[in-house]
C-alpha cells in the first residue's frame, strides 16, 4: 500500500477523489434501493440485510418484466390493489380505467393478443430513487393480426422501445407511467 502522506498534494487528490466518488455512489445506490417505508433503525444492521434490501428493486423490476412477458400469475404479488396506470392509450384513454393486478393483466393480455410472442428486455439498467424506479426497455414480436387499422401482413416482425416509471409502496407497484414509441410500432404495422 502506498503512503499518501509522502505524495505531492495533487497526486494525493487524484487518488482520493475516485475513492470519495465511489463511496458516495455506493451510499446513494444503497439508500435509493431501499423502497421500504420503515424507519432506518427498524431494519437489520447486518451486511446481509443491507444486501437483501439493495437487491429488492431489481427483483421487483425482474418480476415486472416477467409479467409483461406473459407470467400473469405473479401479478398479485407485485401489483397493489390500488395500482393505477398513467398512459396515453391508442384508443385515446389516459389509462385511468386500468386498476389493480386484474386490470393490468387484462391490458397486457390485450396487447399480447396481436403479438403472442412479444418479448420485453431491459435496454438500459434501471434507475432507482427511493420509491421510484425507471427502466428503458425494448420489445420485439411477430404480428399475428387483429390490430385495428393495421395493413401489415401477419408474420411481420416488430420492435419498439419505451420507458416505464413505477412507484413502489410496501414492496408492490402502485403507480405506473409509460412512454412507448407507438409511432414506430404503428409504422411497422402500416396503420393509416
Model description:
This protein is α+β, with helices and mostly antiparallel strands and 192 residues long. It has five helices and five strands. A five-stranded mixed β-sheet has the order 1-5-4-3-2. The radius of gyration is 22 Å and the shape is globular. The relative contact order is 0.13. About 24% of the residues have low confidence.
SSE blueprint and pairings:
Layout: H1 9-33, H2 47-68, H3 75-78, E1 79-86, H4 100-113, E2 119-129, E3 132-142, E4 157-169, E5 172-180, H5 182-188
Parallel strand pairs: 1-5
Antiparallel strand pairs: 2-3, 3-4, 4-5
Helix pairs in contact: 1-2
**Gap between N and C termini:** 68 Å
State the secondary-structure class.
Answer: alpha+beta
Please provide the count of β strands. Answer: 5
- What does the radius of gyration come to? 22 Å
Poorly predicted segments:
9-55
Secondary structure: helix percent: 25-40%
Largest sheet: 5 strands, mixed
Question: What is this entry, summarized?
Answer:
The chain is an alpha+beta fold and 192 residues long.
Amino acid at each position: 500500500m502506498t503512503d499518501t502522506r509522502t505524495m505531492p498534494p495533487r497526486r494525493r487528490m487524484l487518488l482520493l477523489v475516485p475513492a470519495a466518488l465511489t463511496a458516495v455512489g455506493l451510499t446513494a445506490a444503497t439508500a435509493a434501493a431501499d423502497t421500504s417505508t420503515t424507519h432506518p433503525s427498524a431494519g437489520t444492521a447486518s451486511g446481509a440485510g443491507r444486501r437483501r434490501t439493495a437487491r429488492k428493486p431489481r427483483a421487483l423490476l425482474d418480476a415486472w418484466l416477467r409479467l409483461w412477458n406473459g407470467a400473469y400469475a405473479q401479478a398479485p404479488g407485485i401489483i397493489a390493489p390500488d395500482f393505477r396506470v398513467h398512459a396515453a392509450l391508442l384508443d385515446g384513454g389516459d389509462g385511468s380505467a386500468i386498476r389493480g393486478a386484474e386490470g393490468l393483466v387484462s391490458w397486457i393480455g390485450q396487447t399480447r393478443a396481436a403479438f403472442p410472442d412479444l418479448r420485453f428486455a431491459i435496454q438500459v439498467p434501471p434507475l432507482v430513487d427511493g420509491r421510484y424506479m425507471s427502466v428503458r426497455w425494448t420489445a420485439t414480436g411477430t404480428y399475428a393480426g387483429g390490430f385495428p387499422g393495421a395493413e401489415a401482413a401477419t408474420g411481420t416482425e416488430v420492435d419498439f422501445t419505451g420507458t416505464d416509471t413505477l412507484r413502489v409502496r410496501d414492496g408492490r407497484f402502485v403507480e405506473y407511467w409509460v412512454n412507448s414509441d407507438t409511432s414506430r410500432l404503428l409504422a411497422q404495422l402500416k396503420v393509416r
